[in-house]
Design brief:
The chain is an alpha+beta fold. It contains four helices and ten strands. Strands 3-2-1-4-5 form a five-stranded antiparallel beta sheet, covered by helices on one side. Strands 6-9-10-8-7 form a five-stranded mixed beta sheet, with helices on both faces.
Length: 175
């Protein structure tokens, strides 16, 4: 076998192995979506994948699936498998934090954070804030909506609810 024969066989095998190794399976947050493209963010690694076409996703959807690079340049991606797709909501609730959340907040200093698993699925984050700064704290949390959605996607929930009362802020990640 000559070097030319080896080269003719080698790239196909290497290319196939390379293509397979560049596939990424995970949970992705759709951070932008247009008619002909979309941007997915891997909620575990933070890696961003620009899709060269939109497979029907909308901004703020969560997609569990597999992306693979578009040949030959591998600078854009395709969503090649979809295991599930769901939408997420983030909302400010008029309801106050639960009595349990208020008790947790009372045991920690201002700026303190307690994370607890919810009964069933999800988490509750209780943050103790200055009483006169509660509204600002809620606005700050809501302003970082991509982070809220990414955490919700990692937790496998569909809804994020922000509750507050003077000095207490709770972020509820719920099914």
């Amino acid at each position: 076998m000559t070097d030319a024969d080896h080269d003719a066989d080698g790239p196909d095998e290497a290319s196939a192995a390379s293509d397979e190794s560049e596939r990424v399976e995970g949970t992705f947050l759709v951070t932008a979506a247009e008619a002909d493209s979309a941007v997915l963010k891997d909620v575990e690694s933070g890696q961003v994948h620009t899709l060269s076409s939109n497979p029907g996703v909308e901004c703020d959807d969560v997609v569990e699936g597999v992306v693979a690079p578009d040949p030959p340049l591998n600078v854009s991606y395709q969503l090649v498998e979809t295991h599930s797709r769901r939408s997420l909501s983030v909302e400010r609730s008029d309801e106050p934090p639960t009595a349990h959340s208020k008790e947790l907040a009372a045991t920690q200093d201002v700026g303190g954070l307690t994370r607890e698993e919810r009964a069933g699925t999800g988490e509750i984050h209780v943050i103790t804030v200055p009483e006169d700064g509660t509204r600002t704290a809620v606005d700050d949390v809501l302003e970082d909506e991509e982070q809220l959605r990414s955490r919700a996607a990692r937790l496998g929930v569909n809804r994020v609810e922000i509750r507050s009362s003077p000095g207490v802020l709770s972020v509820r990640y719920m099914p």
